[in-house]
Amino acid sequence: MKTLLTVSALSLAASALVTLRPAASAPAPAPVAGAATASTPAAEEASAELAPVFDPADTALVVTDPQNDFLSPDGVTWGVVGQSVTDNGTVENLEALFAAAKRGGFPVFVSPHYYYPHDKRWKFEGTLEALMHSLGMFDRPDPLSLEGFEGSGADWLERYEPYIEDGETVVTSPHKVYGPDTNDLVLQLRKRGVDRVILAGMSANLCTESHLRALLEQGFDVTVVSDGTAAAITPELGDGYAAALTNFRFLANAVVDTEGAVAAMTRVSR
């Protein structure tokens, strides 16, 4: 049986790495953001300096695909993502991020995933594109109609509706494969003067990671919330969440858990 690489296990590994001491002639490695360090006043001060501090003047929360087909037990992908979503507390953590952003006055952007009938006429597809289309994932009958949308797999989880449908959250045009290259997310962020992004949502190794890569290439400072996402785990394809965590650590400006992100949104920089 495959086992999920948990955030706590990753943190322990990171902690072990930062406690290693190089040879005297070599410079000390930079501490890993969010990793445990020796409990000394100097270490605590350094840790506080490394912790991200977000300012609503230039920082936004971006959430990818907070939709039923990923996050509800009734969703079409629950059989492969349910373990990861449950283990991470992703549903609850996303709500905590939405709530913290709203309390702190941070702009919130949702980058959704929708498929319309014309998308089913594509001449070629990747592995997961073909699977999503065959499952009817994120299906909507028409781009100009909300008929049948409420409660469907393409709809948000009901608990997120007060945050997304408050007249303030920006719901971008849909991305079509994985990244924001095919929607207006970057334009909307730039027009609002956003330079830093707190990134969470589904699915970790697909849309979330693709958004991370694209936003970095566009010059944004991106912090990924490690337990504000989850991914499929299958015997054939492997552990998507573990793969994403590895790449988050390599690529993102910072990786924090939900508790750290909420604290950073509360501890507004001056």
Structure notes:
This protein is α/β, with parallel strands linked by helices and 270 residues long. The protein has one domain: Isochorismatase-like (Rossmann fold). Helix content is 40%, strand content 11%. It has helices spanning 7-18, 41-50, 68-71, 78-88, 90-104, 127-135, 161-164, 185-191, 204-217, 240-251, 258-266; strands at residues 59-64, 108-111, 170-171, 196-201, 221-225, 233-234, 238-239, 254-256. The strands form two sheets. A six-stranded parallel sheet has the order 3-2-1-4-5-8, with helices on both faces. Strands 6-7 form a two-stranded antiparallel sheet. Strand 4, helix 9 and strand 5 form a beta-alpha-beta unit. Helix 5 packs parallel to helix 11 (258-266) and helix 9 (204-217) runs parallel beside helix 10. The longest helix is centred in the middle third of the chain and has 15 residues, at 90-104. The protein starts with 6 loop residues before the first helix and ends with a helix.
Rg from Cα: 19 Å
Number of domains: 1
Number of strands: 8
Name of the CATH superfamily: Isochorismatase-like
**Beta-strand content estimate:** 5-15%
Helix-strand makeup class:
alpha/beta
Average pLDDT for all residues: 80
CATH topology: Rossmann fold
Q: What's the CATH architecture name?
A: 3-Layer(aba) Sandwich
Sheet with most strands: strand arrangement = 3-2-1-4-5-8
Q: Shape, please?
A: globular
Largest sheet: 6 strands, parallel
Distance between the termini: 49 Å
